């Protein structure tokens, strides 16, 4: 991806300054369905999740979520989209049925500008292979936000058809590769959430308020996954 570095510096100055629950701008049409309702639960907001790499400690779960965070987010799952999405899944499917694993990669602006961090793509592929090998009965949910969506695309393309067949659902938010298919994953298993006015979804390196608002879509995303998995 060739783009001026200037616009991506907006990330560093805004991603922590704009709260997740800001009032929405008008006309928030999306590729997927949006919902602003977030249930009141005892939620888990940890930004570091390693329940696949620590499978010896927690055991295999019916569902394994592999998630890649966005650029310069904290931990390995971030805080803007990942934890709200997991919490909505817990509310629908049950936390005891789900293992969450974040993709450890630098998530730098430089990585975004080259079209996704190569190491992050390899780590995503390695985690997919690990889940299929160590937990052969688990249903894999592959997800990512912003640059994390890039890693999901790139990493999934690196695994074989047998491993890809274990992917039950793919959910991406603010996807710079919007519209790009996932090899060996049927399109009926894929949901993309992109605001029409999110420049990142048009492969333009400009972060606006829309790109920081995908928390409104996590309830719908969780319902999409619920419809595809069997706890």
Please, could you describe this protein's structure?
The chain is built from 8 helices and 5 strands; from the N terminus they run H-H-E-H-E-H-H-E-H-H-E-E-H. It has a 5-stranded parallel sheet, sandwiched between helices. By secondary structure, it is α/β, with parallel strands linked by helices. Strand 1, helix 3 and strand 2 form a beta-alpha-beta unit. The protein has helices at residues 5-14, 55-58, 82-93, 109-113, 118-134, 147-156, 161-164, 218-226; strands at residues 63-68, 98-102, 139-145, 167-173, 190-193. It is 31% helix and 13% strand.
- Sketch the topology as an H/E string, one letter per element: HHEHEHHEHHEEH
Strands of the widest sheet, in order across it, are 2-1-3-4-5
How many DSSP helices? Answer: 8
Task: Report the end-to-end length measured between terminal Cα atoms.
Answer: 39 Å
Provide mean pLDDT, rounded.
86
**Rg:** 16 Å
* Strands, count: 5
Describe the main β-sheet briefly: 5 strands, parallel
Task: Fill in the keyword field for this structure.
globular, 231 residues, disordered N terminus, five-stranded parallel β-sheet, alpha/beta, 5 strands
Give the structure's gist in a few sentences.
This protein has 231 residues and is of the alpha/beta class.
Write the layout of secondary structure elements.
Blueprint: H1 5-14, H2 55-58, E1 63-68, H3 82-93, E2 98-102, H4 109-113, H5 118-134, E3 139-145, H6 147-156, H7 161-164, E4 167-173, E5 190-193, H8 218-226
Parallel strand pairs: 1-2, 1-3, 3-4, 4-5
Helix pairs in contact: 3-8, 5-6
């Amino acid at each position: 991806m060739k783009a001026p570095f200037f616009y991506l510096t907006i990330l560093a100055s805004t991603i922590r300054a704009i709260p997740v629950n800001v009032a929405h701008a008008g006309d928030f049409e999306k590729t997927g369905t949006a919902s602003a309702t977030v249930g009141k639960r005892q939620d888990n907001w940890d930004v570091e999740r390693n329940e696949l790499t620590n499978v010896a400690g927690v055991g295999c779960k019916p569902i394994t979520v592999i998630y890649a965070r966005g650029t310069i987010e904290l931990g390995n799952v971030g805080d803007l989209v990942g934890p709200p999405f997991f919490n909505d899944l817990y509310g629908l499917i049950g936390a005891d049925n789900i293992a969450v694993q974040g993709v450890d990669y630098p998530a730098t602006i430089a990585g975004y500008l080259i079209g996704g961090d190569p190491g992050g793509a390899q780590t995503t592929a390695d985690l997919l292979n690990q889940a299929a090998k160590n937990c052969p009965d688990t249903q894999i949910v592959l997800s990512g936000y912003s640059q994390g969506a890039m890693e999901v695309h790139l990493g999934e393309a690196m695994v074989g058809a047998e491993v890809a067949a274990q992917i039950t659902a793919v959910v991406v938010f603010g996807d710079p590769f919007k519209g790009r298919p996932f090899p060996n994953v049927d399109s009926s298993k894929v949901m993309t959430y992109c605001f029409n006015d999110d420049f990142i979804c048009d492969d333009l390196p400009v972060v606006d308020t829309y790109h920081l608002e995908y928390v409104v879509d996590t309830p719908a995303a969780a319902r999409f996954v619920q419809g595809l998995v069997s706890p």
